[in-house]
C-alpha cells in the first residue's frame, strides 16, 4: 500500500522462453555497451497456462515520468528507455494482465533486473518505481494483474455477485510469478543476455507479494525486498476492522485529540525504556502503559475541553489488545501502541479491510462495516480464514526451498505501523525459525528489522534497504544493521542503525540522541 496510505489518511509453476538463445550472465554493463539498444517487439513464448495476446515496444525519451492513478508522484531526469508490454490471458478466464518491462539504453544497464509489487488493490507499480530503477541502471518490470488502480476493488465480484476467482488468483500469486518469467525473458531478448541478478521490491501489498515469491516461487529472484508486508492476509485484513467494531459495540468514539492523548501518555511512560528520552518507543512489546491511567484527564481540542472517560480508556485498551471472540479467545494482533489511530479508528472504515470484508468475505457490497457487532465480526473473521487462507494467506513458514535456492529475503516493519500490525510479521518470522531450525539458520537468508516509531512503509525513498540487499546477494555481506533516518514524536530527525530482529536498540548512556553511534543493538533480555 506504500504511498496510497498517505493519500488515504489525509499456484502452479510456470515456464517461459523467448525464441532467442540465452547469453552468459556476467556482471556489469561493459559487455552490452558497444551497440545501441534496439527497441522492438520480441517474440515471447507464453508462460504455461497463459496465452500471449500482444507484445508492443515503444521507445521513451525519459525526462520527467509521472505516476498514474491516485498514487501519482513523479521522477525527474530519467534516461531514455524502451518499454515492452506483454499482455497475457489465461484461456477461458476472461482476464487480460499486462506485464510492462522498462529497459535502459545498453550503456546504462547494470546487468540487473528489478520487479515491483503493488499497493492496496493495485498489483504493480504506477511508474515512479520503474523510473527510479531505470535511473539506477536496472531493467525493471511490473504487472497490473488485470485489475485496477490502488483504490479500485470493482473487480472483486462478477455480474452474478460471485467472487472473480481468476482475478483474485492473479492478484494473490500468479501474475507476479509470470512477471518474473516474462520480464527476464524480455531482458534476454532485447539485450541478448540474461540478467546477472534479479530482485523483487515491494512494500505492503508489494511486501506480501515478495513473501509469496519466496514461499511459492523460490527460484524467481536472487533477492527479495519485502517491507511492511501484508502477509497473513486472511487474518490481518479483517482484523483491522476491529477498532470500528469496538467503537460500535462500546457506543464510544473518542475524538482524534483523545486518541492522541493516549499515544502521548504511552510515549511518556515508555520512551526511556531504551535508556534515552528520544521521542521513540524502541521496543513496543515492553510498553505496558495502562490507558485507564488517563481517566479523568482534561484534553483541549479545537477550543473545547474534553474529559477522558472510563469508556474511552476501555476502547483504547481493546483496540491495542486486538480482536477477540465473544468468549475472549484472541483472534489476531491489535494496533501497535504508539501507532496513529486515525487510519483504522476514523469516522469510516479503512478502505482495504472494508472492501475485503464486504465484497470477498460477506459478498454484500452494501454492508456497513462500522456497524458490525462482536459476534458478526467473529463470524466474518473465521469465514475469511476458511475461504482464503490457501488463496492469499501468504503465510507459509516453509522457506526451505528459497533457502536452498540461495535467495535472500530482507524486511523492515515499523513498530508504529498504523495499518498492518507489526506483531503479525514478527509472528511469521518466529514460525519460520521454528520450522527451519532456529534464528541463526534463518538469519543466513532472511533478516527482519523492526523499526522504532516508524509508520507504514516509512523508509520508502531512503534506499538503504535495497543497497544492503544487493551487497548481501552479490558480495555475501549480510546486513548486521540498516542505516536509517527516523522522525520522532516531536518531528526531530534521528540517525539510527536499525537492529535486526530480535535485537533492540539501547542508548550507550552518553552522546547525542540524534547520532546513531550513541546507540547499540542488544538482546531483549538485557534491555
Give structural notes.
- With 527 residues, this protein is of the alpha/beta class.
- The protein is 31% helix and 19% strand.
- The chain has helices at residues 4-9, 128-135, 165-191, 205-216, 233-239, 242-249, 256-270, 310-321, 351-361, 374-392, 400-405, 422-436, 439-443, 464-475; strands at residues 51-60, 63-66, 74-78, 81-89, 97-104, 112-116, 139-143, 197-203, 223-227, 298-301, 304-307, 408-414, 446-451, 481-487, 493-499, 504-507, 519-522.
- The strands form five sheets. The chain has a nine-stranded mixed β-sheet with strand order 1-4-5-7-6-8-9-12-13, with helices on both faces. Strands 2-3 form a two-stranded antiparallel ribbon.
- Helix 5 packs antiparallel against helix 10 (374-392).
- The longest helix is centred in the middle third of the chain and has 27 residues, at 165-191.
- It is globular, with a radius of gyration of 23 Å.
- 51% of the residues are buried.
How would you describe this structure in keywords?
alpha/beta, globular, disordered N terminus, 17 strands, nine-stranded mixed β-sheet
Rg of Cα set: 23 Å
**Residue windows where pLDDT falls under 50 for at least 5 positions:** 1-34
Report the strand count.
17
Q: Distance between the terminal alpha carbons, to the nearest Å?
A: 33 Å
Instruction: Give the biggest beta sheet.
Output: 9 strands, mixed
Kindly estimate the percentage of residues that lie in beta strands according to DSSP. 15-25%
Helix/strand-derived category reads alpha/beta
Q: What proportion of the residues is helical, as a percent range?
A: 25-40%
Q: Indicate the overall shape.
A: globular
- Average pLDDT taken over every residue: 92
Figure out the total of helices. Answer: 14
Order of adjacent strands in the largest pleated sheet: 1-4-5-7-6-8-9-12-13
